[in-house]
Amino acid sequence: MSGPAGERPAHALVADLERTLGDPAAESGPFSFAEIVAHEENDSLPPGAVELLRSWGFSGYLVPEDFGGRLRNLEDLFLLTRTLARRNLTLAVMFGSALLGVNSVWLWGNDEQRARVAGALLDGELACFAVSEPDHGSDLGTNETMAESDGDDFLLTGEKWPVGNATRGRFVTVYAAIDGSRSSLLLLDKEQMEKGSWTNHPFVRTVGLRGHDLSGITFDRTRVPAGALLGRAGAGLVGILQVLQITRTAIGALSIGTMDSVLRIALRHARERVLYGQEIYQLPVIRRHLVHAHVDLLIAECTALPVARSLSIVPSRLSLWSSVVKYLVPTLGEEVVQEAARVLGARSYLREGVASGAFQKLQRDHAIASIFEGTTHVNLHSIAAQLPAVARVADRPAVGGEGVLRQLFDWSEDAPQWHPSGRALRLTNASEDEITRGWGPAADEARRIAERELAGPEGAALVKVLSELSRRRTDFYTRIAAEAPDAASTHGQDQATEHSVHHAAASCLYTWLYSFERERAEPGGSGWLVLALQRLLRRLDHTTELEESCLPWLEELMLSSLEGPRHFSLQTVRSAAGPAPA
């Protein structure tokens, strides 16, 4: 199904939100950098910003279609969040925290719970996920919040902090131990809780995301009906780990939106700033920073979007794939921010001037992406723990893997509808990882295409980088299968880091194979892949250089995308590389 001019429905939806929010470089408006930065100085949100999002219908994308909302799949929400995050991460995090707060309801709630929460969210209410405790942080095995049985009710006692939307949110999904042992998830509705039996904490003062409700909540024998239980008593820890798989994936949208904005700010500055008698864009080192940032953004997109689609296609793979996205995409985002800062020089440090001082806000806000929903170390541990099982079958493509890969990486159609089910999510992938296991046949096919369709240095460079990545990949998984490294060791974390590189390289390759079939022989249609694979190889071998012949086309595209609503994205690359009309 396509929209006007062959546009996918998801992209048409994003375009409509872009038009509604307007140009962030405008002088005024609730989504202009000028107003965002001015109000952030007072720890507040721009007046009218939340109202504009709600009137557009953004809240509807927190509620699945099955329950009366507009959320068809995670891909749609990912793309919309990217659009919002490239303007204001604070608001994107506010809605993301609400999604985290209600996903347990969609997965395990009963009909009454789902209907009540869906109706309230569609009316503009928010929710929160009250899991962390002051003394325990991400140690989910230690939970001091207790729900004591009292007739047909529970009496809830404990403190949760810090919690996004704890004060503004009407609904609270709380992690509590029932009768001292069975850690469970309970759905609380503040409108039904006895006044005086619970209190909210003041907002925490933070480095970034100023104006966001990061606060806490304390319960003092708060009476909660037994019907507040979400799913099975005692399944709370498993439920948290499964819910986080969804939001860890969605966090990639925050990073990619940030990358788009900081690259745009730095590129515009490089075209406008004149030093030594020329615009600084003409300096080779400046162009290198910008091109590296652009290619890294494309890698992030290739890595994250298929995992967002997987929620509707193969949700059982999210335990591993979501951790790869949560580690790698924010890491790439941090590096893109650093590249942009080098272009801006001293102006990256100012709270005024270039882009109304938005860069320093974006830089501070994005720092949260590597912290919440499990820190970088937590996600690397999750990857490392699953590597031995994956490594043992790394050279055996999964049965039916090609069909799965085409569904994930052929972006000519939107992802299928998501029908929420807690039973569909798993705590581990076991050995199921079509993305890394399918590399061998895909690389062979890519070499044949390069030799048959791609002339000159581009084809030769593609064959070379594929061969080097294949060699390193074989050595890597052979070592893992033999060693089975300790996931908690620094060596295990390093192995998880390298696995993420191989996952991303495979994702770039499949995107090219399945979504660039018509464009790959056209100018730029394969050059971006060469550059992406070389950037990834450079993470394993710092002597790797980018293929010079592929750079001019990508630079020209980057410059042409600077003005207007087009994102720096593979969709833009694909449109520009498309074959000329007959």
Automatic annotation (TrEMBL):
Its cofactor is FAD. Pfam families: Acyl-CoA_dh_1, Acyl-CoA_dh_M, Acyl-CoA_dh_N. Its EC number is 1.3.8.8. One of its GO terms (molecular function) is long-chain fatty acyl-CoA dehydrogenase activity. Residues 235-387 form the Acyl-CoA dehydrogenase/oxidase C-terminal domain. It is an enzyme of class 1 (oxidoreductase). Residues 128-221 form the Acyl-CoA oxidase/dehydrogenase middle domain. InterPro entries: Acyl-CoA_Oxase/DH_mid-dom, Acyl-CoA_Oxase/DH_mid-dom_sf, AcylCo_DH-like_C, AcylCo_DH/oxidase_C, AcylCoA_DH/ox_N, AcylCoA_DH/ox_N_sf, AcylCoA_DH/oxidase_NM_dom_sf. Keywords: FAD, Flavoprotein, Oxidoreductase. Residues 39-125 form the Acyl-CoA dehydrogenase/oxidase N-terminal domain. Belongs to the acyl-CoA dehydrogenase family. PANTHER family: ACYL-COA DEHYDROGENASE (PTHR43884), ACYL-COA DEHYDROGENASE FADE4-RELATED (PTHR43884:SF19). This is Acyl-CoA dehydrogenase, long-chain specific (EC). It comes from Streptomyces globisporus.
